[in-house]
Amino acid sequence: MSAELLTDLTIFVLALLVGYEVISKVPPTLHTPLMSGANSVHGIVLIGAMMVTAEARTPAGYALSFVAVAFAAMNVVGGYLVTDRMLHMFRTRS
Fold this sequence. Notes:
Elements: H1 3-24, H2 28-37, H3 39-55, H4 59-89
Helix pairs in contact: 2-4, 3-4
């Protein structure tokens, strides 16, 4: 295992742990407004995943980058769907 791969895996695992800790501490009443505000961040993650895909050179790289783009896209779309649903709750019925 190369030093570069080990560094990348370490960063990935640390990002998973930090992300889990941050999300698990958010109370349910704040989750939807925070998700709404974080949609721009999710868009940046999607762009980053697409940039990684452009640099992929091996079949494993293509597979991992496809998974990254798919998860990032699901995150963006899901965030906007939840935001839209939340905003519909505040509309007046006519």
